[in-house]
Amino acid sequence: MGIEGIGARVARKEDRRFITGRGRYVDDIKLQGMTYAHFVRSPHAHAKITGIELDAAKAMPGVIDVLTGQQIVDDKVGNLICGWAIHSKDGSAMKMGAWPAMAPETVRFVGQAVAVVIAESKNLARDAAEAVVVHYEELPAVANIKAAIADGAAQLHPEAPGNIVYDWEIGDQKATDEAFSKAANVVTIELTNNRLVPNAMEPRAAVAEYNPAEEHFTLYTTSQNPHVARLVLSAFYNIAPEHKLRVVAPDVGGGFGSKIFIYPEEMVALWASKKTGRPVKWTGDRNEAFVTDAHGRDHLSKAEMAFDADNKMLGLRVKTYANFGAYMSLFSSSVPTYLYATLLSGQYNIPAIYTEVVGVYTNTTPVDAYRGAGRPEACYLLERLVETAARQLKVDPAELRRKNFITQFPHQTPVIMAYDTGDFNASLDAALKAIDYAGFPARKAKAKSEGKLRGIGLSCYIEACGIAPSKAVGSLGAGVGLWESAEVRVNPVGTIEILTGSHSHGQGHETTFAQLVADRLGIPINQVSIVHGDTDKVQFGMGTYGSRSAAVGMSAIFKAMEKVEAKAKKIAAHQLEASENDIVIENGEFKVTGTDKAIALPMVALAAYTAHNLPDGMEPGLKESAFYDPTNFTFPAGSYICEVEVDPGTGKTSFVNFVAVDDFGRLINPMIVEGQVHGGLVQGIGQAILENAIYDDSGQLVTASFMDYAMPRADDVPSFQISHTTTLCPGNPLGVKGCGEAGAIGASAAVINAITDAIGNNRLEMPATPDRVWHAMQLQQAAE
Amino acid sequence: MYSTNYHRASSVDEAVALIAKGSDAKFLAGGHTLLPVMKQRLAAPGDLVDIAKIPALIGIEASGDTLTIKAATTYYDIMHNADVKRMIPAIAHLTSVLGDPAVRYRGTIGGSVATNDPAADYPAAILALNATVKTNKREIPADQFFKGLFMTALEDNEMITAISFPVPEKAGYAKMRNPASRFALTGVFVAKLKSGEIRAAATGASQDGVMRVPVIEDALKANWSASALDGIKVSDDGLIEDIHGTSDYRANLIKVMAQRAVQAAG
Amino acid sequence: MSKVSLTVNGKLVTADVEDRTLLVHLLRDHLGLTGTHVGCDTSQCGCCVVHIDGRAVKSCTTLVGQVDGADITTIEGISKGDELHPMQAAFRDNHGLQCGYCTPGMIMSAIDIVHRYGGNLDEETVRHELEGNICRCTGYHNIVKSVLDAASRMNVAQAAE
């Protein structure tokens, strides 16, 4: 590696603008004549709209227009779509209710948009929104899974009887039943995977501008995937054909999945900009983020694992209910199915697995992918089940895992995934060593003598990243291909622009992608610019989620670079009067191997563009593009071990140590990789001990601000001990696997396994708040 | 936030006159309780009277056995004040775990006390130390000041000008934070006054706001030590039950925090 | 409407604004200083922290009237030309930021922490002092490292002066 090439801990190129206050986020954009939107939202979880009075609002100062759900339906703006078709056991398609961008007739969750005020300022728009009078006829609501599937439950959509979206299965039921019939021991667990609110620090925002002369729209939006947004806005929402719609996602302040989806607010801003003839800005506040950003998780599950007399796993049976909220968000259907159940084999050799997943409508905010998306739910379920098994079977939890680890690769699981490579013993060994597992009993005893309860918990996770082989996901119902595109432009002076369909909203692509180019050409990263997030600049791309930008996005750049290098070598060979097979690239020069003859990259580039002396028949210029479609998912995996101390007086958990050992394949920039892990771990810890989106029975979100929803703060979490083991991914040219979600996937089980170990009571749900832990301790003491 | 008119007062008299004249007018000091509520449009004062820069309302005076903190003194200035640290270190500690650093620069003791948020910290200190709330009209003993959730004895056009604390023999404060808001999930202030009186006050726990806890006071009267509380049971009658803690959990916290407060008091 | 005058990053500014205008909106909407952000409605996240008369304060919880005559420093005002403030440099060098949205408030709070504690900072203190700043990306690990690193840089710089 060079000093700025692959593997180097290079400081980020993008940082300077952020640390000096020169980032450019959507809300920073101000257009000439811009107006401001404020939405009128439903205060009810379920109600019929019986009338709307707009006159008072329209007469308020600064109001340009007030627009309603009926108008957006009348204008034939399309309903929101769900882009992944899932079929039930019986072969029927999933049952979807219509989701208009603003509700014309019925509202189905608190916060659903009903109307919008467009005014000269944000304050005036909000003032007028309060003057819009909506008459509602309240309907009974179902606010959670159990209420939604109960007999006689209120029904959300006539299309989905019983509030069931689908009843899906995977795996071999018969083989699994047989495995259980042979079992020496069966271990069972029932769990809730708590609902989370993503809470990227930048609230969602949109600025839309319509140019009537060109019949052209521009949308600046907080998106992780602007091209997908444009495609959906064009093809399904009838906003404008793609060539008449430019979508720009400038600096975006965190996404975590919540900014993948195309939301009603962007659609309305675009539509309203044409209706009013003025640019329209909408910036969500935090309360709107809580009630309108797609939530994450929210599963109820029961799982059973069959073991033989030697504690080898024989089979796994899981039934999960997944809460989708009131409408099916863009990728929601895939999350508890192909992103969840396909990972239930974990790191283990489980011969038979059968899983059923029932998707359920409730009168709550829609639920979709949130950091990890299905994989954290799978890991939490499996790793709590394995830990529970170790306790019931009275074997060391590390040994039980080790006994059942997959050690031969490739490995075909019973639930679709074919793991390409890995070394699960290596990461577990490293983690056990780092935390001094052998010394834990002595530490526990010492803590006890000081009146504290100490516990240790393991979590060995695997995830499927690098999303995803297009043909495979197409066969599973995805509405899109999940390849990535790249374009490499060598300018006449030899500087380079990389155009990518990946989108950076904190991941540091401007640095890591440049490191790839630096590595290949031996030039400094400041000679390379990364261009992303603008449909006018980048031809197409699928965006950033599912830890895909390195494995898929960089692989596309790699392919385009190979093409550029091949042409540049031809030019260099021609200039140097050598054979192109003898040209090597070193330190920014094209050299004739074994000689001192060389030509620098800028001279090659200049030759390409002057075209005065190119090989016969060669086109001028030095620019190539590539599409990369992965052949398989990638499989990052690792071992996390957490050591906690619980205060017996208050039930409060504090962290003594947290060790994470990950196998991400090749690391492009270890500093950035570690940062991704830190952030993921804290989201996992947040889910484990702090965060919970709670609805009351009427469907009101009780935790709709940071006053009630506990976000992890600096003093809630520890510093981390992070290290890596490496097996290179054979599926892509860089050998990378992806690192963005691992922490959020693996951490929560380690934390809960540690707390339950500390208090000696395995019955504990997330978030393990002090209140819950204290109650679990009281029950345990009463039982003893 | 709804439209409002901002006024900066330069004296107590001017402030009270502006309040009397204004429409649904409110005093504004640090603004860290009022402005968030106004931003969410849950309050709509027509006039705001800023009292944060009135010289007579700022400062801390130590005289004999009394520590007087004027109403618009900020948390930051209280926790770093040498007299506070010397005479009632428990107040300095309480202030250091209240809000966050940015809030402590702006928030004032008068604002906190006048609001009487059921999870605020200062009311516990005032009640446990049997402090006196001084206003532009009168002096109100602590036991008569707090009147339930967000309610105080303050009348219209009455403004807190200072709080006078008798310096105790010993005092301590311990708090379990609400994991989301960082207010007190339950906080307990214990004090052994120079008169010999033992007082304990809990915040964050009761549905009626700050309250004294007789069962703790009685046990500590017999024996001022954390272990004296080992055997007591705090009733959960009337305690808050919410997503962050059940009433029996809060009853437990009152006891545990009281024990830690006694340990801190020494 | 009221007329307010204040100093922002060393320049005298006057503005005629509604009394309900918050300092953060004056900075962002009227003065174009968009480095100061809004991340919550409840005065908790700290994305909006600026220095008012040298103290780190939440500009989303400050009316412009309250800062009439005050001296404000924002994230745009802490570097000397091209030379970064040591806290800015430490955030970059320690990868103390990812999406960058909380970063300006984080840096402004962190400078204030170092001003108050000088060299007497440890990890636990930094974590406690960052209570009023929420970050969703970094898990705080590298933010804590950045602040500790900057504290030593700032103390060295101070000692040299």
CATH architecture of the largest domain in chain B: 2-Layer Sandwich
- Unreliable spans of chain C are none
The first-level CATH class name of the largest domain in chain B: Alpha Beta
Order of helix and strand elements from N to C terminus of chain B = EHEHEEEHHHHHHEEHEEEEEHH
Number of strands of chain C: 5
Instruction: Tell me about the largest β-sheet of chain C.
Output: 5 strands, mixed
What is the subunit arrangement here?
A: heterotrimer
Q: Per the principal axes of the C-alpha atoms, what is the gross shape of chain B?
A: globular
Query: Termini distance of chain C?
Result: 45 Å
| The CATH homologous superfamily of the largest domain in chain C | Beta-grasp domain
Estimated helix fraction of chain B: 25-40%
GO molecular function (chain B): FAD binding; oxidoreductase activity
Keywords (chain B): FAD, Flavoprotein, Oxidoreductase
InterPro entries (chain B): CO_DH_flav_C, CO_DH_flav_C_dom_sf, Diverse_Substr_Oxidored, FAD-bd_PCMH, FAD-bd_PCMH-like_sf, FAD-bd_PCMH_sub1, FAD-bd_PCMH_sub2, Mopterin_DH_FAD-bd
Protein name (chain B): Xanthine dehydrogenase family protein subunit M
What's a quick, concise take on this entry?
The complex is a heterotrimer of chains A (784), B (266) and C (161). By secondary structure, chain A is α+β, with helices and mostly antiparallel strands.
